[in-house]
Amino acid sequence: MTKDIEFRREVLISIQRALLGEIYPAVRGVAVGYDANVKLKIIYYLDRDPEEEDYENISDVAGEVLADINFSEVEEQCIYSKESFSNLDCLEAWVYIRKED
Length: 101
Prior knowledge:
Elements lengths: L1 H18 L7 E9 L3 E8 L5 H17 L4 E8 L12 E5 L4
Parallel strand pairs: 2-3
Antiparallel strand pairs: 1-2, 1-4
Helix pairs in contact: 1-2
């Protein structure tokens, strides 16, 4: 159990560090999930349709996490959604949520 908590902490700290300077106005929220050290999944929820720069940005963030933790598989998604955060998939955890009315 302690090993799982330590790994979770390692993932969350890594992605928080990777997101420094990478959040921009179109990003509503960022969710992260993982399956041990096998698969990393990151979702950017956007307030508009995804653009090429969004995919480049999320790829940069994933690359930073991979520099810290050796995941063998990465899944990155950029999703346009106006749904409330309570209706969106946060995977393992929200690592960023924009304040909204």
